[in-house]
Amino acid sequence: MTSPTEAPSARPRVEGDREREILEATLDVLADVGYDRLTMDAVASAAKASKATLYRRWSSKQALVVDAVCSQKASGALPDTGSLREDLFTLHCELGGFRDARTLSVLAAVVTAMARDAEFAETYRRDFIGPKIAAARAIFDRAKARGEIAEGVDVELLAPALPGIVLHRVFLLGEEATPDLIAQVIDQIILPATGCPHLPTASS
User: What are the CA-CA distances from residue 92 to residues 78, 120, 178 (Å)?
Assistant: First the structure.
């Protein structure tokens, strides 16, 4: 039996399936009301949890939202097919998820939050965008080592071009991020920009 002078035992952490349920609830609320109107109370209600449970794991709304968004990151090893085209296609076909209404709403909410909350933007860029840029850069670096990218090509400029173009067409032009669209961007824009015209494309 614990004596009055002994420190109380630490409260259990939120983890495993319960953590995933709360993160999913956070994404649902974020998609429904946006970042500004999202509250810890609203997430707690959606997750059927107490607000104290949330604060036991996340110190702020910002921390919770960043964790929720980052929980959507693809897992597993980077594709390494021996071909720049196939590596890019495999890596970015996950962008097909942007056909999902909730995913689009979450991303729109995140973009709004980044414009209004500098600290959130910094954390999101570091924890979510940073790893994605690093993954794309690794694929381009391997391709350059194989001779698929000409000397003098700015890999840092080229690496984020594919998701940037696809997202432009999704958000501004209202298109879907289909595998065909991703393949067209790779074949007609990315591969020609490598400066190595000998690379085969779908059109050739």
Answer: 11, 25, 10
